[in-house]
Specification:
The complex is a heterodimer.
Chain A: H1 11-23, H2 37-51, E1 55-60, E2 63-68, H3 81-84, H4 91-103, H5 113-125, H6 136-149, E3 152-157, E4 160-165, H7 175-184, H8 188-197, E5 205-208, H9 218-230, E6 232-238, E7 247-258, E8 265-271, E9 276-281, E10 285-293, H10 297-307, E11 327-334, H11 340-349, E12 354-359, E13 362-369, H12 376-380, E14 386-391, H13 394-410
Antiparallel strand pairs in A: 1-2, 3-4, 6-7, 6-10, 7-8, 8-9, 11-13, 11-14, 12-13
Helix pairs in contact in A: 4-5, 7-8
Chain B: H1 9-22, H2 28-38, H3 47-52, H4 77-87, E1 114-116, H5 129-144, E2 148-153, E3 159-172, E4 177-183, E5 190-192, E6 197-201, E7 217-225, H6 230-237, E8 242-249, E9 252-260, H7 264-272, E10 278-282, H8 284-299
Antiparallel strand pairs in B: 2-3, 2-6, 3-4, 4-5, 7-9, 7-10, 8-9
Helix pairs in contact in B: 1-2
């Protein structure tokens, strides 16, 4: 039986745990019965080790519930990045890494594998009680890894291969840039990796409305970006709320859709099998594999550029014959004399559609959209002033009004007359 | 590969330890302190013991090292690709930096590869020269710990002249705006950067205290009925707050969320957006605000 380590080999295993701890927090050990109890204990211990003070617990009749609770406004760096910095390695990996870069301490120093091996044995390991033994193939394999990562270069002189370190990049002026974009740009964990190497840290920025869980999907996101850069098809495993087992799909990734109001990230992709555009939750995707290059990428991306003007969120409605189904929505709000901010809200918060002034105190928003249901939470934020609405989907309009009635009932409004506005 | 030991906290801690030893530091206690700072909670149980047992043959048991240069590593292709990607972001103009040596690098992503679909449309103008100038004055003053002075027009249309210590710049991705958080200015502690005019360094000698206003925090308690995937939506939507959730029965949950009192109007409409699946239990004042809005809505006679 292997002993516990705070380092991990496979990120995917911890990804689901982290999301559930961060999002929910009402789950107790028993709720994780699908996995082994030991696995739960190990993952919890790792998270405590990486996330320190951000882990907390409450005692409930069902047991001790651990959860991650973070006010993201009060932190400078996304604590989830720590999980990405917990990759395991072998004793040989770490020993070889620091010795190789010590020998190749500047780009002008060039060595063959044989020279490196001799120097490692004689200069670095000889004084240890039981010196490690490396062979040429191990060193060659490690150097290939480093060449692929771009940190070591190989040059052929005649039949001999010489290795040297790559040129460095000056990051001394980038501390604020790295601090800001490691939180505010996609795959920010990579910026955090660079910041770890900087001499100084930055205190300049804090972040409001900052969703930090997306960090744990950075691996999937980086592969999707690579696929789009190379215009490739990918195969992905997609887990759905409606299915226990993930389904394998071949899709063409076209654009990542990011929400800064609910923290979700979706992939808008073309699904050739059904000639349709579909959105996939990135946190449900795993095992993304790059497949062949597709000649259709530019044409498909142009299509979604045109479609985005009819998308409120991430939904599209276009059948396999290319016929779109659009719905009409409009609603009217009343605005008092001192409520100019409502008009400003409508203008800045509408993503599509238009706002028309009907009279000095009435404005109407209208749009043609693929999916009205995505707009409903936004329309509800105008509760207290909605005077009229028209949806081409009668069921949704009826649901909206029924929900309002349910809210009145929930808070006892109008039940005994005393709460009614006269 | 994004998940690699090259970026690991352990490698960073080991690099720091070796650098310290090269600088002449051989105290184990001091080297343990580096482990605590640079790695994780339980790393002290692994890193120094691995040196002492010669599992990692980089440091001898007497805390000397055969390594002769302070460890450094060039940026990986992935790191360069990410830097190239952010060099294409419109917000990079705020920083006035050049990205040298990335000419032949392909960006990890371009602005066409992703779309933030729900940020507000009236974000700050990061291309405006005066905005950029003021941003740099303020960020420089934050770094140096010095004072600034500026003008702004208050709600009543009156120009105010302000001198303060800038502490931090707060960026909201939703608003796409920066706010300046200050100390030493007693009427307000946070101001939108776009409202600041004529901002310059204050070169005078007049002292100013560094008092930062504490933000009043409130707790919102809601009961969530888990229909239409409401629980997940609520937990995701409020994920950036300190919060706690508890299961009441099979389909009902109690969620407590800590928020800044000054954000209450925004919180009220965020709660309303969930409709009848989220019921406010407390505070009483929050509940009253929700009821007030619903009463007004009922009076609109929406049919």
């Amino acid at each position: 039986m292997s002993s516990y380590s705070e380092l991990i080999k496979n990120f995917e295993k911890i990804r689901a745990y982290m999301r559930e701890f961060y999002l929910y927090g009402f789950k107790s050990r028993e709720d994780y019965s699908k996995k082994s109890a030991r696995s739960y204990d190990d993952e919890r211990r790792r998270m405590e080790s990486w996330l320190g003070d951000h882990m907390s617990f409450v005692r409930t009749p069902e047991g001790k519930n651990m959860f991650i609770s973070i006010d993201s406004r009060s932190i400078r760096h996304n604590p989830f990045y720590n999980a990405w910095k917990a990759k395991s390695f072998t004793d040989g990996d770490v020993t070889l890494h620091f010795i190789l870069f010590d020998i190749l301490h500047e780009p002008s120093v060039k060595r063959t594998v044989t020279e490196l091996l001799r120097e490692i044995d004689e200069k670095y390991l000889a004084d240890f009680e039981s010196p490690m033994m490396f062979d040429e193939s191990t060193i060659r394999k490690k150097l290939k890894e480093y060449c692929d990562a771009g940190i070591v270069k190989m040059e052929k002189v005649g039949r001999k291969a010489y290795y040297h370190r790559a040129e460095g990049t000056d990051i001394s002026e980038l501390t604020d840039v790295l601090h800001f974009f490691s939180e505010a740009a996609p795959c920010g964990v990579i910026g955090s990796y660079i910041l770890d190497k900087a001499e100084t840290d930055s205190d300049t920025f804090v972040f409001k409305h900052h969703y930090i869980t997306g960090a744990i999907d950075s691996g999937v996101l980086a592969t999707i970006f690579a696929a789009m850069r190379e215009k490739r098809i990918v195969s992905v495993s997609n887990l759905s709320r409606r299915r226990d087992m993930p389904r394998r799909n071949r899709i063409i990734p076209l654009r990542v859709l990011i929400s800064v109001q609910n923290g979700r990230q979706h992939l808008l992709a073309y699904y050739p099998e059904f000639n349709s555009f579909q959105s996939y939750r990135i946190d449900y995707l795993s095992n993304v594999k790059l497949e062949e290059v597709t000649p259709r990428f530019d044409e498909l991306r142009a299509q979604i550029d045109a479609m985005q003007g009819k998308m409120w969120g991430v939904s599209t409605k276009r059948n396999r014959w290319g016929v779109e189904k659009l719905e009409h929505v409009d609603f009217t709000v009343k605005v008092d004399d001192d409520e100019d901010y409502i008009l400003r809200r409508l203008e800045r918060e509408k993503r599509i559609g238009r706002v028309d002034r009907l009279d000095a105190h009435t404005y109407r928003f209208s749009a043609e959209v693929y999916d009205i249901s995505e707009m409903i939470p936004w329309i509800r934020t105008f509760i207290c002033r909605i005077t009229e609405m028209n949806f081409t989907s009668p069921a949704l309009e009826k649901q909206f009004k029924a929900d309002l009635d349910a809210m009145y009932k929930m808070y006892g409004i109008g039940e005994e007359g005393e709460n009614d506005i006269q | 590969m994004i998940f690699s030991e090259l970026y690991s906290a352990y490698y960073n801690a080991i690099a720091s330890i070796i650098s310290k030893i090269i600088d002449g530091e051989h105290s184990e206690k001091e080297l343990q302190r580096i482990v605590s700072e640079r790695a994780f909670g339980e790393s002290v149980l692994t890193i120094m013991p691995s040196f002492k047992s010669e599992k990692w043959q980089l440091v001898h048991p007497d805390m000397t090292t055969p390594i002769t240069h302070k460890p450094t590593m060039p940026l990986t292709n992935l790191q360069k690709q990410w830097l190239k990607a952010i060099s294409l972001d419109p917000r990079i103009k705020l920083f006035g930096v050049d990205f040298l040596g990335l000419e032949d690098i392909e960006p990890l992503f371009t602005p066409a590869d992703y779309h933030v679909y729900d940020k507000y449309g009236d974000g700050d103008d990061f291309e405006d020269d005066e905005y950029v100038r003021q941003f740099r004055v303020i960020s420089e003053a934050i770094r140096q710990g010095t004072q600034i002075k500026f003008e702004m027009v208050n709600r009543n249309g009156k120009t105010m002249y302000i001198r303060c210590h800038p502490l931090r710049l707060e960026y909201s991705e939703k608003d796409d705006k920066f706010r300046l958080i200050t100390a030493g200015w007693h009427s307000v502690s946070t101001v939108n950067l776009s409202k600041i005019k004529n901002c310059v360094h204050y070169a005078g000698q007049k002292p100013l205290d560094n008092y930062e206003w504490d933000k009043k925090q409130d707790i919102l308690t809601v009961r969530v009925r888990d229909e239409r995937n409401a629980l997940e939506r609520v937990m995701l939507h409020f994920a950036h707050f300190e919060k706690q959730a508890e299961r009441l029965d099979k389909s009902t949950y109690l969620v407590r969320i800590k928020y800044d009192h000054s954000d209450e109007p925004e919180m009220v409409i965020r709660i309303l957006s969930f409709g009848p699946l989220v019921e406010v239990i407390g505070s009483e004042s929050f509940k009253r605000a929700v009821i007030e809005k619903l009463k007004k809505q009922k009076a609109c006679n929406l049919r």
